[in-house]
Design brief:
The structure is a single chain. Strand 3, helix 4 and strand 4 form a beta-alpha-beta unit. This protein is of the alpha/beta class and 306 residues long. The strands form two sheets. It has a five-stranded parallel beta sheet. Strands 2-1-3-4 form a four-stranded parallel beta sheet. The protein contains twelve helices and nine strands. The protein has two domains: 142 residues, Rossmann fold (3-Layer(aba) Sandwich); 152 residues, Aspartate/ornithine carbamoyltransferase (Rossmann fold), CATH 3.40.50.
Length: 306
């Protein structure tokens, strides 16, 4: 457990640590079902949420997890801060540390920012998403949700569908799923799949959405991230929906049930249709609920290890 000083990357987690995170999250999820949902685990601890990128679900999920653990919470956003005046990331964090905070949750538009911070400060750091690199807490809650629904992850066939090129969620999911013994297929237009990805990770590539859905037990559908694309990589969103959208028609054509996940925010009618998101196959709302439990587990475990 010595390596679990920060949560920067899925790669840094051992299978033993992942099991401990899931076990702890399960215990916290039971607490969240009680009338009084608060526990004193982080009483007298201060956590700063350092968000250099816009976020709704992740920031609210972390904030709620921190408050459920009775931590004092500082929320930092770039707009209206000294960052707009040219202050560096390291200076910002050092100023915050001088206020005696105990833990940093950071989301940053530059890949590697959480790792850079971990080289300069000693308190625990949780990566809440860095550039197009990783989003480890999302991967943990996704896999936790799959295990909760199916009982295991070993040998499960998981298709990750959509904008693989720009997705930190996809990258962290691939790392975690393959580490835990799942089979992973990535599916999407060739322009949105990194060249040579199958040489880096043990994944298979499929360009036909019908074949991918027939193959998988679980489909994790990613958002099309137009804001990260430096040049147009799709002819139109309508064409993307026709070729790769998870539609009710495609779901009805399957001869088996599959689970549908989506990390959000959802572009309804683009990568997935509303009646699929809101249908019986979808566990999107379970993902949101499990996100709080997973983040509570991480905050608690990191506070114990520090």
């Amino acid at each position: 457990m010595e390596t679990f000083k920060h949560l920067i990357s899925i790669q840094s987690l051992s299978n033993e640590t992942i099991d401990l995170i899931f076990k702890t999250a399960k215990e916290f999820k039971e607490i969240l079902q009680r009338p009084v949902k608060k526990v004193p685990s982080l009483h007298h601890k201060t956590v700063v949420n350092l968000f250099y990128e816009n976020s709704t679900r992740t920031r609210l999920s972390f904030e709620l997890a921190e408050k459920r653990l009775s931590a004092d919470v500082l929320n930092f956003t770039v707009s209206g801060s000294s960052v707009a005046k040219g202050e560096t990331l390291l200076d910002t964090v050092k100023n915050i540390l001088s206020m005696k905070v105990d833990m940093v949750v950071i989301r940053h538009h530059h890949s590697g920012a959480p790792y850079f911070l971990s080289q300069h400060i000693s308190i625990p750091i949780i990566n809440a998403g860095d550039g197009i690199n990783e989003h480890p807490t999302q991967a943990l809650l996704d896999v936790f949700s799959i295990i909760e629904k199916t009982g295991s992850i070993q040998g499960k066939k998981v298709a990750i569908i959509g904008d693989i090129m720009h997705s930190r969620v996809g990258r962290s999911n691939i790392m975690l799923l393959t580490k835990l013994g799942a089979e992973v297929m990535i599916c999407g237009p060739g322009s949105l799949i990194p060249i040579g990805i199958e040489k880096i990770y043990p994944v298979r590539i499929e360009y036909d959405i019908t074949k991918a859905l027939q193959w998988c037990d679980v489909a994790n559908v990613l958002r099309i991230q137009l804001e990260r694309q430096q040049q147009p990589l799709l002819s139109s969103l309508r064409e993307y929906n026709l070729q790769y959208g998870i539609t009710q028609k495609r779901m009805h054509a399957l001869n088996k049930p599959i689970l549908i996940l989506h990390p959000g925010p959802i572009n309804r009618g683009v990568e997935i249709d509303s009646n699929v998101v809101d249908g019986a196959s979808s566990i999107v709302l379970e993902q949101v609920e499990n996100g709080v439990a997973i983040r509570m587990a991480l905050l608690y475990l990191l506070s114990q290890n520090h």
